[in-house]
Structure formats: structure tokens, C-alpha cells
Write a structure and sequence with these properties.
Length: 238
Amino acid sequence: MDNAGYATLTRQSGLMRELQIIANNIANTSTTGFKSEGAMFSEHVAALGGNDQSLSMANAAVRATNHTQGALARTGAPFDLAIEGEGFFQVLTPQGERLTRAGSFTPNEAGDLVTMDGYPILGAGGAPVFVPPDAGAIAIGADGTISAGGDPIGQIGLVLPEDPAQLTREGGTFFVSEGPVGDAPDARMIQGFLEQSNVNPMAQIGRMIEVQRAYELGQSFLEQEHERIGKVIDATRR
């Protein structure tokens, strides 16, 4: 296979990755707190040595997350929380602390506030948030302060990575920050609301069609190139 074939194959591989990302976005259109992703293409130049020219190949290994805020949907549930502004809830998982914008929480049997998967929500001090089973009506302020009967009983924390470039997705709606996190001073919580997915289905479908067409063009080129090389080989045998 010549250089044109290798370059096209790497481009095809990148387009396939982008199709998988788009399909995942569309599948999570209704997932609370989900942030859409996109593929970032870059050029990889390989030196061939000798008098041969270098080989330029496409690479789509980087996945870029769109952190634009999704629409807020009213649920009325006391432990449903949406974040307005830049910030994340901290969740304690078996793999360590993780960040999320999905704010559908509930107290477990022990009174700890947890996610739908049973992972504890961390408070402003880094400890799990406890809600007494007999607390009665719960009110949660914009700063995360939890009150029962007008008396504060705890505070849900909001954090923000100091370096957004060190924030990476870890499946679903969870993110991990490789660097330190600090307070999120410009973020506020809204009780009884959930942040919806920020996926634009129509835009994603339109992009999927574009990528599919580009993939089909690349496949057509490879088939023509294969046929051309076959003819050259047949000609040299005569």
C-alpha cells in the first residue's frame, strides 16, 4: 500500500471514532447532566527516512467535551438540584472523588445524600452530606446550605477545577480532575430542578450525515486505489 492508502486509512479510522462519539451523544440526549463530546482531528507526520517524503496521517484520538450549560427542567423533588453557572458536585465513588453536573439525589437508609447509583455526595468540607431521617421539610439554598425547619443541618459543596484542561470524562456524567479543585464562587444551586443534557439532536444528526458521507468518499477512494494497484501488478506480470 502506498502513502495515499495509509493516509486515507488513518482518516477513515478517525471518522469512525467520530461516528461513535456522535452516536453516544445522541443516545444521551435525555441523560441528566450529560455533556456532549466532539472529536478533534490532528495531523501526525511520520518520517520515512532516506530520500522518501514524510507521511502525513490524520489522528482523532482527542475527545473534546462541550461544557455549555443545558436547559433546566423543573421536577419539584426536594433533593433534585441543578447548577447555574460553572461548577460541579463532588461524588465519592469506589475509584475516588469524581465531579458531576447530574443532580438527582436522595437520602439512603443511613441518611447520607447519595446519587442514583448510591455514591455519597460530598459537602463543603469534603465529608458526606447527612440528612436526618426525621428532618421534615427540606430547603436547600443557592449556596448549598440544607435547612430543616429553618435550621441549617449541612451544606452541599460545589467545586471547580483550577485548570479546565486537566478535566477528563470518566464515562457517563462523571469527570475526574487530574489537578486541584477549588470553590465555585459564581455557581448557585436551584432546588427542585435538574440540568438536562446539552446535546442538540438535530445538530448531531446533521454532523453524522456529514461524517458518513466523508467516510463513504474515503471508502470509494480506497476501492479505486486497490483496483489501480491491481491493474499495475497485472501489467508488470505480462
